[in-house]
Amino acid sequence: xxxxxxxxxxxxxxxxxxxxxxxxxxxxxxxxxxxxxxxxxxxxxxxxxxxxxxxxxxxxxxxxxxxxxxxxxxxxxxxxxxxxxxxxxxxxxxxxxxxxxxxxxxxxxxxxxxxxxxxxxxxxxxxxxxxxxxxxxxxxxxxxxxxxxxxxxxxxxxxxxxxxxxxxxxxxxxxxxxxxxxxxxxxxxxxxxxxxxxxxxxxxxxxxxxxxxxxxxxxxxxxxxxxxxxxxxxxxxxxxxxxxxxxxxxxxxxxxxxxxxxxxxxxxxxxxxxxxxxxxxxxxxxxxxxxxxxxxxxxxxxxxxxxxxxxxxxxxxxxxxxxxxxxxxxxxxxxxxx
Length: 338
What we know:
oxidoreductase, NAD(P)-bd_dom_sf, SDR_fam, alpha/beta, oxidoreductase activity, seven-stranded parallel sheet, Rossmann fold
């Protein structure tokens, strides 16, 4: 896990506040009924966004979040609640198709994530961290990209922000596991709950970079700005699965000593959606600044694994949602045409 210095710096020296207006903008935030996602959506409403869509699994909880945001900001008619289950490929596809009906989308923050206490298999047959943090997020990112590209104007580009983890730096891949990594980690390797979680985040960072490359036009300029951002250790319910008495006590102590308010993490995510072309394909740390990525991002070996992961993930999501193939092909066509 990140060391004490990193955690304490984040707790006592929060990222700068975001003041840029989002007037007239349409924003999507997934996993936004609680925690960092909620605070991120709240911040966009405070910054004058015209439409803020909460992508949530529970519509009831989403409506509660909507009411809280409206009460806090005094702005009604801005927040919309859309159902999105990141553990279900068909739900993700339906959400993305609904997004296509919008006039435009200026920002999409893919915040929904999972951190399980034990090894669990989702209904899709994939380990739950991999399903939500890697496969589900990858599918949604790919399917949203054409709409984000179409929202480009002469003086602005849409943003796709993918929430990741500083813990990707600490991933330890075993040599024998480097072939068909996604499938290898779909079984209980006994690597520990933290390693499984941050590994799923590393896998998604590889996907983000591959997608960013495919969103460069013929001049090498991004058609949509795609970046990763880490909100840092914040008070949220991402560890809701850690519900035993001992874990509950440990979380309470840890929250008091080390975790910062979820609003601080939201600053990083909203900030990432204000950055220019230089942020394309980059990673922002919990302080809101670019930081060196881990070895599996920057090394030659990492770049090889990245391409292999893209192929593996795309193969899985294409099998479940066949139209993914056409979406990816369209990205290449746009690159050739521009």
